[in-house]
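Case study.
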Amino acid sequence: MFEVPWSDYAPSLIDGLQRTIWYTVGGFVGAAILGLVLALLRLSPLRVLRLPAAIYTELFKNVPLLAIIFLTYFGLASAGVRLDVFQAGVLSLIVFYAAYLSEIFRSAISGVHSGQQEASEALGISRIATFGHVIFPQALRLALPGTNTMLVDLLKSTSLLVTISAAELMSEGRIITSETFRALEVYLVIAAIYFALCYPLSQLLLLLERKIRAGVPLSPRRRRRLRIARELLAQKEVLA
Amino acid sequence: MTEIVASEPTTTVEAVVRIDGLSKSFDGRLVLDSVGLTVRRGQIVAIIGQSGGGKTTLLRCVNLLERPDGGTIEVAGEPVFAAGKVVCRSLARLRQSVGMVFQRFNLFPHLTAVENVMLAQQRAGVGESEALERSVALLRRVGLAHRGLAYPEQMSGGEQQRVAIARALALKPTVLLFDEPTSSLDPESTGEVLKVMRELADDGMTMILVTHELTFARDVADWVVFVDGGHIIEQGVPAEVLGRPRELRTKAFLTTYAAGG
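After joint prediction, the assembly is written out as follows.
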């Protein structure tokens, strides 16, 4: 059954794999930032800020990703904005996934109990610090499951970039197929690589979710703080 | 509006909180109608009254969690609200000098007890090790050194409220506000929390508390304020307001409460 000389194609597969990862990282980081900004705008008391963010979200949630890819690559080019394949690919992913992530973030932020904001402000903590230290960490816990699903989904969706020959994993698969005419074998291998990427990633994210929920300190600074606290708490009565 | 000063007329102890002509309405409904109250250093003032009578709103105006419509508020000699506007130099500074304890604790669920007490200190610029030591000392003071690394969800209601008290004390406030601190607690937890509050009172802490614990008010408070329909109906020493109330509405309220237990 295996007749494709895989060792010859290994370098191009690794190239494709790397590009898939870069598209994923670039797309996800961008989408997370834009999604957060959109979520904050949608939670603003000002209608002028809320409305454009809501329109954006509804617009891009209801347009297929493939259409967005064609628009950014071919569409913008015909309008004189020439993006290279990588720019167009990452931009499409950002624009599309930001809409979904903003919905997840918005519901997570508004899911944090209003008493939290109040308690923090009553302690004289500034609004910005309240968001950073009280609201955001709690919202993050609420947003994590949905966000993780989106990350894996985004990784798989990079395969759509085959349509603009983005030289990622799927594109490499298509090239190998055209050279060997072994579509079944090639695409089985490509599918297996996607699985080998996505399955451990989603398991890792689940683990992270559980750790964060259990309150395991992730930063070295917090670990150190809790260790010192443990020592201080264990000491017998000290004069304060 | 006759203002009754909440202490012997001859004492010259400074007023920590001075409220005058305070008004507040929600959606056109008047919740506070020209209320005046003075709290002096070391005093424990209990605000009692029916739910919806305006007592919680009055308390929340002291640290401007609720913005009044009119009147004046002075905290520690500094005007914080006047002529319909917030006039204090820094809202953060005001709130650092006024600690608050909520009915529903409102601890930060993503932080351990000790970190809950630490956070405000860190944001106020207290150094890491100093903040840690102070937080541990405060947890010890409320009898919870052994629960310092527990998360709120792992603690009983009484423990959570005691951590909340430690958190409110973290910035060495001039006055502590308690908003029905035992209303969501079982009797045993209520006892724990009241014990800590009693110790604070013995240490000379200035406290304003909205409460349904009339026995506690009688034993610990040195001034009781009965609020109803947005007005202070009656105020005085506990023996008078709770023992020999002059006003009909106070009598009616106390009768209902006595009947309820």
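Observations recorded in class. Chain B touches chain A through 47 residues (CB under 8 Å). The domain at 15-107+174-260 of chain B is CATH 3.40.50.300 (Rossmann fold). We will return to this complex in the next lecture.
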